[in-house]
Amino acid sequence: MALVLQQTCETTGGVVFISSEVAEKLLPKFSRRAEERQQTMKPVDMGSIEQLRQLVDIVGKGEIEPPPHTVFPAEEASEVVKKLCHSEIQGRAILRFHAIE
User: Could you give the CA distance from residue 65 to residue 56 in angstroms, rounded to a whole number?
Assistant: First the structure.
């Protein structure tokens, strides 16, 4: 479902990245839809925990700037998806499921 939603929200000619772990299964299933929407589907490898730690470290040091993002309560998920589909949210949309203390 998420891949169908991604393809629907993605503008014509966009790129949809999917985990290489499931690419073999999903690429044949969604390739026709991608072709109709002039989209490219690319498998990507998952990073390691160490790579994530390094990324967090260099972002924390200000060496690179993360993409813009907005945090929304999980209860607004449906509305957030609609806004994403209409390009009404700049950058990433993050759903918050509980408060972090």
Answer: 11
Separation between Cα atoms, residue 19 and residue 89, nearest integer Å? 24
Mean pLDDT value across residues 24-36: 87
Q: How many independent structural domains does the chain possess?
A: 1
Instruction: Determine whether 7 is exposed, middle or buried from the number of CB atoms within 10 Å of its CB (0-12, 13-18, 19+).
Output: middle
Domain membership flag for residue 79: no
Query: What is the pTM for the complete model shown?
Result: 0.47
Residue 73 is predicted with a pLDDT of 94
- In a domain, residue 88? The reply is no
Nearest CA among 101, 47, 48, 92 for reference residue 71: 92
